[in-house]
Amino acid sequence: MRLHRNLVFASIDALAEIFNDGKYADKTIQKTLKRDKRWGSRDRSFVAETIYDIVRWKRLYAEIAEVKQPFSREDLFRLFAVWCVLRGVKLPDWPQLEKTPERRIKGRFDELSKIRKYRESIPDWMDEVGVKELGEKVWTKEIHALNEQAPVVIRTNKLKTDPKSLADILREEGIETSNLNNYPEALELKERSNIFRTKAFQDGLFEVQDASSQRVAELLDVQPGMRVVDTCAGAGGKALHLAALMDNKGQIIALDIYGNKLKELKRRAKRAGAHNIETREIDSTKVIKKLYNSADRVLIDAPCSGLGVLSRNPDAKWKLQPEFLDSIRKEQAEILEKYSKILKSKGKMVYATCSILPSENQQQVQKFLKTGEGANFTLLKEKTILSSESGYDGFYMALLEKK
Ligand SMILES: C[S@@+](CC[C@H](N)C(=O)[O-])C[C@H]1O[C@@H](n2cnc3c(N)ncnc32)[C@H](O)[C@@H]1O
User: Distance (Å, rounded) from C-alpha 180 to C-alpha 198?
Assistant: First the structure.
């Protein structure tokens, strides 16, 4: 691989913003990719993947390079030099990379790889929580899997097409996909590419949605004509799936505390041809109270640590704080208690998170079942999806029924 100065410099600028100014990696990458219109798809992939890699491996690379935050420009080039050496990329003779100690870097890597928190490049507290909640053996495998680059999976929009036709259409646009066993609506891209630019995407034929996430709406067991409330709908990944599973018949009420996310949901619903979704911002307790005992199905896709989706969101390793875990657990318990009241008797509810920690998952459900409201519920099924076993995001989902 030949390194291009302008691509590397753009990546270094982006890393400075992410590490030193606390900017989000995905947003910074999007902005960086707009910097030069002449960049082709390979250039763009280089920039995005190099930045994500160095974000993912920050702790390991910083230990190897012996640099500390806030990183100077020189430090960032040292991190980049570590990336080059460990990837076997030939170092160019630029002054910033002069005197890179290649042998020492490899030696330090071998040494540090013996210790999980360095090898997997995670903060001490995260390693401790992982071991405490999942045990050494499972955590060791899981955090390793969560450091792999996430595959790109799409969900066929059954309101407009079917997986076979979609695969053919995408092939004509130069994108090869494969079917996923046991995920009926999913296709996986054989090579990463910017699928948002395709006509198929603009026509609403698919959504980008991880395979594990596609399990959630499926579990809710919806039927056309039902009244379904998606209580933490965000930008609507699952709500759109529910609309398709309901064949656009019945009603989906999509709630969230953030109006801007619901606006994005509306845009996506229009593109997808999903006409049965109504959005309501939760701006007072009345919004929820008005819905008590009214829904056949309730989805609680709860806010969580996001530890199951580290592979697509590696900067969460550095943004997440242990105090946030405590507060999010409290919020999850409150949400379960309050939003479960929306369900009618005999109705079904799914509680889901993209976390792999039992304290956000099965322990929350068990705690809920012991509350006054929870006593009206029976747990029908629960599923923990580990990334190390599935190859996709880590997820948890529980199906409950109101007596
Ligand atoms: C896991 S995300 C939802 C993802 C979304 N369901 C999807 O499939 O794309 C959790 C959502 O819960 C929202 N949220 C956080 N606290 C909430 C609360 N108290 N009530 C309702 N929604 C909340 C967040 O804004 C976020 O959009």
Answer: 21
